[in-house]
Amino acid sequence: MIDFGFDKIALIGAVALIVLGPERLPRVARTVGHLLGKAQRYVADVKAEVNRSIELEELKKMKGQFETAARDVEQQVSKEIHQTTAELEKSWADADPLSPSYENANAGWTPVPVYKHPKKNWRLKRGAMPQWYKQRHGIRGKAQSGAARVARFRPPRTGS
């Protein structure tokens, strides 16, 4: 870039004073200052945009590397799980007393019935206090809005 020292700036100022005159020189200097400020802001904006685009490219590259590493870990864990599951099922089948390959199956041994879930709705939250107790003692089972509560407990109209 162009290097301006104090002596060069003083020489340019003296020539501008002679050429423009003392009346117009402050206005021209102010205009040149505004233009230089705008140019510096424009250059700073361009630099910031270039830096943002470079950082965005780096982030995209890092994201790709991270996704690749995560995919590799997922595949490795999945492979280990499948392998372990297969080994477990094999060993379970070898030790299962209900399987036909078990030694006691032909010796008059009766199989144990399999546990059957009672099919309760396990997603439904159940409180420790039973429903019959709540109903007998007047414990509120459902929430009401403020308007519904006012309407419920409003005294009945009399007269007209």
Automatic annotation (TrEMBL):
Its main location: membrane. One of its GO terms (cellular component) is TAT protein transport complex. It is a single-pass membrane protein. The gene is tatB. Residues 137-160 are annotated as: Disordered. HAMAP family: TatB. The Tat system comprises two distinct complexes: a TatABC complex, containing multiple copies of TatA, TatB and TatC subunits, and a separate TatA complex, containing only TatA subunits. Substrates initially bind to the TatABC complex, which probably triggers association of the separate TatA complex to form the active translocon. One of its GO terms (molecular function) is protein transmembrane transporter activity. Keywords: Cell inner membrane, Cell membrane, Membrane, Protein transport, Translocation, Transmembrane, Transmembrane helix, Transport. This is Sec-independent protein translocase protein TatB. It comes from Piscinibacter terrae. Belongs to the TatB family. It is found in: Cell membrane; Membrane. Residues 151-160 have a biased composition (Basic residues). Gene3D superfamilies: 1.20.5.3310. One of its GO terms (biological process) is protein transport by the Tat complex. Pfam families: TatA_B_E.
